[in-house]
Design a protein that fits this description.
This is Ribose 5-phosphate isomerase B. The chain has one domain: Sugar-phosphate isomerase, RpiB/LacA/LacB (Ribose 5-phosphate Isomerase B, Chain: A), CATH 3.40.1400. It contains six helices and five strands, in the order βαβαβαβαβαα. It has a five-stranded parallel beta sheet, sandwiched between helices. Helix 1 packs across helix 5 and helix 4 packs parallel to helix 5. The longest helix is centred in the C-terminal third of the chain and has 22 residues. The two termini are 26 Å apart.
Length: 159
Amino acid sequence: MKIALGADFYGFELKEALKQHLLKKGIEVEDLGISDRTATTPYYETATVVAQRVGKQQAERGILVCGTGMGMAIIANKHPGVYAAVCENPNAAEKSRSINNSNILTLGGFITSPESALEIVDTWLKTEFTQGWEPSIQEWLQNSMHDIADLEKQQFGKE
């Protein structure tokens, strides 16, 4: 699995902790910034770069960290093929994958401790789309992705 990873100034320290954690797990990480705590790259630029990688399937998933995780999610979700979710606990991470098939996780450096973030990331990585749901709901969730793809085509004009 390849993860595109990015942060702004407020998420830099948490991003670095996550990067080390992912590398120790043998996961390929593409660190798209920022590269040091003095960088002033705006959150929306980093979110765009990561979202483009994920949306174009150049990375299987992405993780973004800013102060709250919300700004990154807002920007990332403006890109086709991206389903970014702010998750502040493992339960939200699990549901963002099993229900919404999120492919970008956003976290808040102001809000989430490194220890909590590792648990959230591990839960998000191990959870598959529709996991844990009864067959009828699994089928509904799978079908919903087709409807969402149709909405994306209307919105973004892609085939």
